[in-house]
Specification:
CATH architecture of the largest domain: Alpha-Beta Complex
Strand content: 15-25%
Strand order of the largest sheet: 3-2-1-4-10
Radius of gyration: 20 Å
GO molecular function: glycosyltransferase activity
Number of domains: 2
CATH topology of the largest domain: Spore Coat Polysaccharide Biosynthesis Protein SpsA, Chain A
Number of helices: 11
CATH class of the largest domain: Alpha Beta
Distance between the termini: 44 Å
Structural class: alpha/beta
Largest sheet: 5 strands, mixed
CATH superfamily of the largest domain: Spore Coat Polysaccharide Biosynthesis Protein SpsA, Chain A
InterPro entries: Glyco_trans_2-like, Nucleotide-diphossugar_trans
Organism: Nocardioides daphniae
Order of helices and strands: EHEHEHEEHEEHHEEEHHEHHH
Pfam families: Glycos_transf_2
Shape: globular
Keywords: Glycosyltransferase, Transferase
Helix content: 40-55%
Number of strands: 11
Length: 327
């Protein structure tokens, strides 16, 4: 079965060069680059590596861009691989992902390495979105226990036999690389385009389990994703965008209870402000104070700005500077 790799690109030409080079080494894989960058800067690299260039009319987020890539494929039957542009595929990994996705109609994730020779990154297993995980994230309740479970699961992977390991219920896969058949994509309607950035991978795992679709790791498929170990940092717009995505996912999974998440987020931001104050970190303190004021000023569940076609306009203009004047 044909394998199509949709690479979403916004910035980082050196990373994209390495990504396309690794895809080109797999004879059965076809790369399609969805270029959301200002000025469509990926054209030359696509020509160099034989990839198909798709000029996105705007930057409407990772999930939206993947839909552009999927819709550009004329075939009915193929394996669709969603990919960040800072991922490097090790030899044979795309073939393994494709074979497993086609064999069981599963959603398959590769092992992510922080360097070409390891180690395996802990974030290959994301905690499933739930009230418990949000309390751990914002308040710290159960955080250490969750981290121990994640570390234990990742550490046991080397002892597993076979080619495919399903995620346990409390974990899902990271969105840096996702493989599934075109039929599975259509059943799920792909990744949820309402998410500009963050949480779309957790949403996918939840949707798949609702439909009885298996979600797991391909033990013999390996990619290097050094960017995956980076944190979101302390940028106001980045955190604002992440929290908006979190609220959208909560609204989808627990309709009518958004006030509970709002309370947890406000409390979490307040606690972080206090910690920054005690640790004498004035920049963090000012950032959390601004974020706290923003949370009180608007109800993100009912005032999410949208484009003319109904898709959410990103708050994080650090990723979308050309549209900043539209906010």
């Amino acid at each position: 079965m044909k394998t199509v790799v949709a690479v979403v690109f916004y910035s980082g030409l050196d990373d994209l060069d390495q990504c396309l080079k690794s895809i080109a080494s797999e004879s059965a894989a076809e790369a399609r680059v969805v270029d959301t960058s200002p000025g469509q800067s990926a054209v030359e690299l696509c020509l160099r590596h034989g990839a198909i260039h798709i000029a996105a009319p705007r930057n409407a987020g990772y999930a939206w861009a993947l839909h552009q890539g999927f819709d550009s494929v004329p075939d009915e039957q193929f394996v669709f691989v969603c990919s960040n542009s800072d991922v490097v595929y090790q030899s044979g990994s795309l073939a393994e992902l494709s074979a497993l996705a086609a064999r069981d109609e599963s959603i398959v994730y590769p092992m992510q390495l922080t360097t070409p020779h390891g180690p395996v990154a802990p974030h290959i297993a994301l905690t499933t979105f739930s009230p418990r995980s949000l309390l751990a994230r914002w308040i710290g309740l159960g955080w250490k226990r969750g981290l121990r479970r994640q570390t234990h699961f990742v550490s046991q992977l080397s002892a597993q036999d076979g080619r495919f390991v399903p995620f346990p219920p409390e974990f899902g896969g990271s969105g840096a690389v996702i493989a599934m058949t075109a039929e599975t994509w259509r059943r799920l309607d792909g990744l949820d385009r309402r998410f500009f950035l963050y949480e779309e991978d957790r949403a996918l795992s939840l949707s798949a389990r609702h439909l009885g679709i298996s979600v797991g790791l391909a033990l013999k498929a390996r990619v290097v994703h050094a960017g995956g170990v980076m944190t979101r940092g302390l940028d106001f717009q980045t955190l604002d965008e992440a929290m908006t995505s979190e609220r959208l996912l909560w609204e989808r999974e627990f309709p009518g209870t958004g006030h509970l998440l709002i309370a947890v987020q406000r409390l979490g931001v307040g606690l972080r402000w206090i910690r920054a104050l005690l640790r004498r970190r004035p920049e963090e303190r000012r950032m959390y104070a601004a974020l706290h004021r923003t949370l009180w000023r608007r109800d993100l569940l009912s005032s999410v700005p949208r484009e003319a076609d109904g898709f959410r306009r990103p708050r994080n203009y650090a990723f979308n500077p050309s549209e900043a004047s539209r906010s």
